[in-house]
Design brief:
By secondary structure, the chain is α+β, with helices and mostly antiparallel strands. It has two domains: about 10-120, Hotdog Thioesterase (Thiol Ester Dehydrase, Chain A), CATH 3.10.129; about 130-280, Thiol Ester Dehydrase, Chain A (Roll), CATH 3.10.129. It has helices at about 35-50, 130-135, 145-150, 195-210; strands at about 10-20, 25-30, 30, 60-65, 75-85, 90-100, 105-120, 140-145, 160-170, 170-180, 215-225, 235-245, 250-255, 260-270.
Length: about 290
């Protein structure tokens, strides 16, 4: 008898993202857009609700394919989350919105983010010791956080979570970062603000050494060992592991004291504005040619 494998079926769930005031501090080219870290929380919530046994602390193959813009007067943002069983007991979630034609008789789905959740996977990570990540080698500069958020990453107060000075060298970037505050969900994946701030440090590195303003478009793997919390301080370190004309790739670690809270490998950063956003001249390593 011929055995036909069962086709994996997608399950579709509609939900509304409540647009709290703090989310309006996340601006790209003058528009409020949903942060990647918040998209991960939305997808994690749907996975946990429908797969309560799932340990959602291992995230793989994240893709942030398109900004989700928030309308100025919106109190809720309707989205769809597709769930599909993955290999090895995982679940893949996709965050979508529906775009209707002007006449309203045709609609299509637009993908904004995607990630897979797995039961385990932390044993595959080979993390460096704390002593190797809490300092930078090479020609290093320090940039006050006030300057970072005035000149390099002009987000509102809720997303200004680099504390004190940011240190940047060819080897990477290092800064104390805040767990933030406001109404953000910290129960599922921890506070979204430390990882967001760590990606800010990668953005600054890209402005200095690549001459672009890069945004995260995905990552290979994120392991949450302990959940970060709001109103607490952490140490964030990023290290470049791949630089091409198309993208920058970083690994990142978030510590509290010498305890590792998160590891993220293969963070992909790109200029998604086609050069419309440019770093100021003072931050760039200028080519003498």
């Amino acid at each position: 008898m011929e055995i036909i494998s069962e086709v994996k079926k997608k399950k579709n769930y509609a939900c509304d993202i409540e647009i709290y005031p703090y989310l309006r501090d996340h601006l790209v080219e003058g528009k409020v857009v949903l942060p990647a870290v918040e998209a991960l929380i939305v997808m994690a919530g749907i996975v946990k609700k429908n797969y309560p046994q799932m340990n959602i602390k291992c995230l793989r193959n994240a893709v942030f394919s398109r900004f989700l813009a928030i309308e100025p007067d919106a109190r809720f943002q309707p989205v769809l989350v597709d769930l599909e069983d993955s290999d090895n007991g995982g679940v893949t979630a996709s965050l979508l919105t529906t775009l209707k034609s002007k006449k309203g008789n045709i609609s299509r789905e637009i993908a904004h983010a995607k990630v897979s959740f797995y039961q385990s996977g932390s044993e595959e990570f080979c993390n460096p010791p704390f002593s190797a990540v809490n300092k930078l080698k090479g020609d290093c500069i320090s940039i006050p956080s006030a300057t970072v958020y005035r000149d390099l990453i002009p987000f509102g107060k809720s997303y200004q979570n680099i504390i004190g000075d940011l240190s940047v060298s060819p080897e990477g970037a290092l800064a104390y970062i805040s767990g933030g505050d406001n109404e953000a969900d910290e129960d599922l994946l921890g506070s979204p603000f430390p990882l967001d701030a760590a990606m800010h440090t990668a953005c600054v590195w890209g402005q200095r050494f690549a001459g672009i303003v890069p945004f995260p478009v995905g990552f290979k793997k994120r392991i949450i060992y302990q959940k970060t919390e709001k109103k607490k301080e952490y140490l964030g370190r990023i290290m470049p592991v791949g630089v091409t004309n198309e993208s920058l790739i970083f690994d990142a670690w978030i510590y509290k004291d010498d305890v590792l809270y998160e590891s993220v490998s293969g963070i992909i950063m790109k200029d998604v504005t086609n050069g419309r956003m440019k770093p100021p001249e003072w931050i760039r390593i200028v080519n003498s040619e």
